[in-house]
Design brief:
The structure holds 3 protein chains of 3 kinds. By secondary structure, chain A is of the alpha/beta class. Helix content of chain A is 16%, strand content 30%. Chain B has helices spanning 9-18, 103-117, 123-130, 179-185, 196-205, 219-228, 234-237, 247-250, 299-318, 329-333, 340-349, and strands spanning 4-7, 24-30, 36-41, 72-79, 85-89, 96-101, 132-137, 163-168, 171-176, 191-192, 258-264, 272-278. In chain B, a hairpin with a 5-residue loop joins strand 2 (24-30) and strand 3 (36-41). In chain B, helix 6 (219-228) crosses helix 9 (299-318).
């Protein structure tokens, strides 16, 4: 019948050793794992992470492309697998497949002003793009990072947000939904609220969004009011992939597979995908 | 070697039964409960092989599920010396002969061959598939009152079979479709058929017309109507009685979605296997994400997705007019009597004029 | 450290603990990995705090509820072991009658009157409603069925040892009938609870030619209106249908059809 080149390792995780892990918030931990060989990923891609005996789940890649064999992730305790992973420490082994997905194409950002809108855990995948741009700072215009968290204690990557704001031409606006009486120097409000006041040149600006489903509609609307066209807005969608390779069906959005055609889409592509948001 | 033979039913049964000496023969068989199942045949058991030429049907589960069985093991793992783990894929290359496959199921296998080879080829499906020879059986009459194979373009589908069998002029025409089929026919006692196409024409002429239930439009029109019906009340109408049991997915010959599960042995820490189980888009939680949000919580949205996969999404992605093959299993086995044929008919008829527009929430 | 696990029972036949004792071949391996500190059917050692408390049986009296709350307070994970704990099982059918009516039905009017008149028997009337344990305390995991499925118990422990617990897929028994190639019970001319019942039993009853009676409990989103329609079409009247639901799922049906109490 078919003569397709068949890779017997399609579903096989490779061993990866945790070299560094610490809590970022009460719910989320940072992980750095060593793969033995470079992952070779693009910003916005994801891996399928395994704990053998428990299962497998998609996890966003949080680091920019790198030459060594390290992979960085932020993992929230949200289910059976992530709860078990949270108990692991440095030196423990996990399984990794990937990288998977389309990711961001740096060419779409070159020479442009870039607005990042991150809600909660959405900052983890966006970091892979933010730091990729900062690594070649001269190739991009002004960078604005809107980072929204539920509370001050729930904010991810506090040190990195501070470090990014020190970079020439980078503005970081940190927001929380509510302070809950915790110390907070940023703003209080939804992550979309600063958008009307941003100075945006819609002809030379692109935006990258990642956050909970409810965030996209409001952010897209606010950016549209600033004249930003939908093909200049990139969204990183969340779905629960089971295979990562376009077979299991779980991440399907209308006719596309989020794990293959996404998880990063242009907003203009989503007009034909009525189940996307 | 002959490309096509005429043979008696008895010779065909002998031929099928004797294949068991070189490869496991999987053939349809009626159980004590009346249901037809594709089951392994004891080598040489020609009586049990009768189902290959019997026309009752369809089988409870489609024969193509042989290539993606429920609960199959994808890989096993065990401890490695450095403290990590080693994994071993489980690929099943046992030689088999799948016999008595009807054209609708043959077309489904052909479509699944394409799905599983496109993009990232699935090694587990392809290993089984490539080790399996297929003998098809053309239908002389609809196998059930739910059949609508002709409307779905399956009735004359032969691709994927190594040998096609058909009843012609009181005999069996055995027509090799592949080099493997030609070599299989070398063991069949019969007389050469010089003009198989003429024999097929006589087989087709003897069939009832129309063959099974007919739809009021083409498959292409159905695809367009499905896409156009996004906000149509048809989805709600055809889910009010739905129990979300997933049967329509699991008995469908072109449903292949799955979930994975790890199995460990308490007695052997560090060892285990990852399995995949059949899953289906009608089942609760299929489109849920880790935080609990479900992108298709509403039953009507799930029905719309299932039907779109059959008539719009998969046809566009893999190049065919429909991924429903018209076997009738989903309707026949749905205890709520929801039949994709009725949905297709309603889609082609358009929404009733007096029905209010109802937006189905995702 | 090895997790400390304990077993407790309330109103039940204790058959689920027996079902677990029947995993003999694997039970010994298991004992290497955990400390069983309380197991009424097997040991009598008492422990104060537990990593996992397996609770068997339904709750009938306030003193049972108090004991259960105490167990909850001393346990990191609390697991409903079997149908009695997770659905209230057959005994929840008693909720349709007052305790006095029930007593008379079982033991006769004369016995009921005698017991009602004698204050030494008054503790018998402490019986309130039959409740699944989730109506009293928070439950971390359900091991369903009458009795439980030993493989599910072992799988659960495997996850506990890794610091997590397995996800339950809210799928109907029909999925397991299909995977097993079982002809639908309805096509055999009988009726079945499988479409609205939690899977996980690997369709053990229907594979043996019986029907599903729903011992694993009703699915949370079960479309009972549609299921009733199917049962009616197959010849059951409403009373017969109620009886079928109430065999194992009286408490569950009340919750789905009449809304939360």
């Amino acid at each position: 019948m078919t003569n397709a080149a068949v890779d017997p390792s399609l579903y096989l995780p490779r061993p990866a050793r945790i070299v560094e892990t610490f809590p970022l918030t009460a719910q989320e931990r940072y992980y750095k794992v060593a793969l033995g060989t470079p992952l070779g990923h693009r910003p916005g891609q994801f891996v399928m992470l395994s704990l053998l005996g428990i299962g497998e789940a998609p996890i966003s890649i949080s680091c920019p492309p790198r030459d060594d064999d390290l992979l960085e992730m932020v993992i929230r305790e949200a289910g059976s697998l992530t709860r078990a992973i949270a108990r692991l420490g440095e030196g423990d082994w996990i399984g990794v497949r990937g990288p998977f997905g389309s990711g961001f194409d740096l060419d779409d950002f070159r020479g442009q002003d870039v607005i990042f809108v991150a809600g909660g855990l959405g900052l983890a995948p966006l970091r892979s793009l933010i730091e990729a741009l900062l690594a070649d700072r001269g190739a991009y215009g002004r960078i604005t990072i809107l980072s929204g968290s539920r509370t001050p204690a729930a904010e991810l990557y506090r040190d990195r947000l501070a470090a990014w704001s020190e970079v020439e031409g980078v503005e970081v606006i940190r927001l929380v939904d509510r302070t809950e009486h915790q110390p907070w120097k940023g703003r209080v409000g939804l992550v979309t609220e600063p958008i009307p006041d941003l100075a945006i040149d819609p002809r030379r600006t692109v935006a990258a969004l990642c956050g909970p489903p409810v965030m996209y509609k409001f952010t897209a609307l606010a950016l549209a009011r600033k004249g930003l066209r939908p093909e200049r807005i990139f969204v990183d969608l969340e779905r629960r992939m089971r295979c990562g390779v376009g077979k299991c069906g779980h991440c399907q959005i209308n006719h596309v597979y989020c794990c293959q055609d996404g998880p990063v889409f242009r907003l203009s592509e989503l007009s034909g995908l009525r189940e996307a948001l | 070697m002959a490309e096509a033979l005429y043979a008696s039913s008895e010779s065909v049964l002998d031929w099928i039964a004797n294949q068991g000496s070189t490869r496991a023969v999987i053939a349809p068989r009626q159980g004590d409960d009346g249901a037809i199942r594709y089951e392994p045949l004891e080598p040489g058991d020609r009586e049990a092989a009768r189902g290959v030429l019997a026309l009752a049907g369809p089988s409870l589960l489609p024969p193509g599920k042989l290539f993606s069985p429920p609960g199959e093991v994808l890989f096993t793992w065990g401890p490695a010396e450095d403290g990590s783990f080693r994994v071993e894929p489980r690929l099943d290359r046992a030689p088999r002969l799948l016999a008595g496959v009807h054209p609708c199921d043959l077309r489904a296998i052909h479509l699944m061959d394409r799905v599983q080879a496109d993009g990232n080829p699935d090694p587990h499906y392809l290993a089984r598939r490539e080790a399996t020879a297929i003998v098809g059986l053309a239908c002389s009459e609809p196998c059930s009152e739910r059949c609508f194979c002709e409307a779905m373009g399956s009735l004359d589908h032969h691709e994927g079979a190594d040998v096609m069998l058909a009843a012609v002029d009181g005999r069996i025409l055995a027509h090799a479709r592949t080099p493997l089929g030609v070599s299989l026919l070398a063991d069949l006692a019969g007389e050469p058929c010089a003009d198989p196409e003429a024999a097929w024409a006589r087989h087709r002429a003897a069939r009832p017309e129309p063959f099974g239930r007919a739809l009021p439009g083409s498959r292409e029109a159905l695809g367009r109507a499905t896409t156009a019906a996004w906000s149509d009340p048809v989805w709600t109408r055809h889910t009010e009685a739905c129990l979300a049991c997933g049967t329509c997915n699991l008995v469908c010959p072109t449903c292949y979605c799955f979930d994975t599960r790890d199995e460990i042995d308490v007695a052997h820490p560090g060892c285990g296997e990852r399995c995949r189980d059949w899953d289906g888009c009608m089942l609760p939680g299929f489109a849920a994400v880790a935080g609990g949000h479900d992108f298709r919580r509403d039953l009507a949205a799930r029905q719309r997705h299932r039907v779109n996969r059959k008539f719009a999404y998969l046809p566009a992605a893999h190049g065919d007019a429909s991924f429903c093959v018209g076997c009738g299993r989903c309707g026949a086995q749905c205890t709520a009597n929801i039949d994709i044929f009725d949905i297709a008919r309603d889609l082609l008829a358009g929404s009733p004029d007096d029905a209010p527009e109802a937006e189905v929430s995702a | 450290m090895r997790p400390r696990i304990a077993f407790f029972d309330f109103a039940s036949c204790e058959g689920c603990q027996l079902a677990i004792l029947n995993c003999e071949d694997r039970l010994l391996d298991l004992l290497q990995l955990v400390d069983i500190v309380e197991f009424r059917e097997a040991l009598s050692e008492k422990g104060a705090r537990y990593d996992v408390a397996f609770v068997e049986g339904s709750i009938h009296r306030e003193i049972d509820a108090e004991r259960l709350r105490d167990i909850r307070a001393r346990s990191r994970l609390l697991v409903a072991l079997g149908a009695c704990a997770s659905t209230g099982n057959v005994q929840a059918a008693a909720n349709a009658l007052s305790p006095a009516e029930n007593f008379a039905r079982v033991y006769g009017e004369a016995a009921r009157n005698r017991v009602q008149a004698d204050r030494r028997h008054w503790p018998l009337w402490a019986h309130t409603r039959v409740r699944p344990i989730e109506e009293v305390v928070e439950v971390d995991h359900h091991l369903r069925g009458c009795p439980v499925v030993p493989e599910e118990f072992l799988r659960f422990l495997g996850h506990v040892l890794a610091g997590t617990r397995p996800m339950e897929r809210p799928h109907a028994v029909c999925t397991e009938c299909k995977a097993a190639g079982v002809r639908c019970v309805f096509e055999r001319g009988e009726t079945c609870m499988g479409q609205v019942t939690w899977a996980g039993c690997r369709a053990i009853c229907t594979r043996q030619g019986y029907r599903c009676d729903g011992c694993r409990g009703l699915l949370p989103d079960a479309n009972l209106a549609a299921h009733r329609r199917v049962l009616r079409e197959h010849g059951l009247d409403d009373e017969a249908i109620d009886a079928r639901y109430d065999l194992f799922c009286a408490a569950g049906r009340q919750a789905i059809e009449e809304g939360p109490l």
